[in-house]
Amino acid sequence: PAAFACTEDELQAKSIELAGLVKTAVAKDPSKADAWRQRQIEVDRTAEQTTDLATICAAYDKAIAEAKTAQ
């Protein structure tokens, strides 16, 4: 969990990182493409539903951690 405020720049970096990790995970296991796409949509929805950067960053951090585990 992030103990500090997340900035717009950090959010953008996390978005790029997640996209790259998902691309790698899907290349490794194409059968999981739909699940990863759905996971990205969930994070995007979180970003659309709140303006709280800490909440959005936490959603990205969780998805990034999951993607790293799948590597």
Quick recap:
The chain has 71 residues and is mainly α. Helices cover 77% and strands 0% of the residues.
Shape descriptor: elongated
Q: Please count the helical segments.
A: 3
- Oligomeric state of the chains present here: single chain
Q: Quick one: how many beta strands?
A: 0
Reported for the largest beta sheet, the result is:
none
Q: Over the alpha carbons, how many angstroms does the gyration radius reach?
A: 12 Å
Pick out the low-confidence regions: none
Q: Beta-strand level of the residues, as a percent range?
A: under 5%
Question: Span from first to last CA?
Answer: 21 Å
Structural class: mainly alpha
Q: What is the helix fraction of residues, given as a range? A: over 70%
Q: Could you give the order of the helices and strands? A: HHH
Mean pLDDT across every amino acid position: 90
Secondary-structure map:
Blueprint: H1 8-28, H2 33-49, H3 53-69
Helix pairs in contact: 1-2, 1-3, 2-3
What does this structure look like?
The chain is elongated. The protein has helices spanning 8-28, 33-49, 53-69. α1 runs antiparallel to α2, α1 (8-28) packs parallel to α3 (53-69) and α2 (33-49) runs antiparallel to α3 (53-69). The chain is mostly helical and 71 residues long. It is built from 3 helices and no strands.
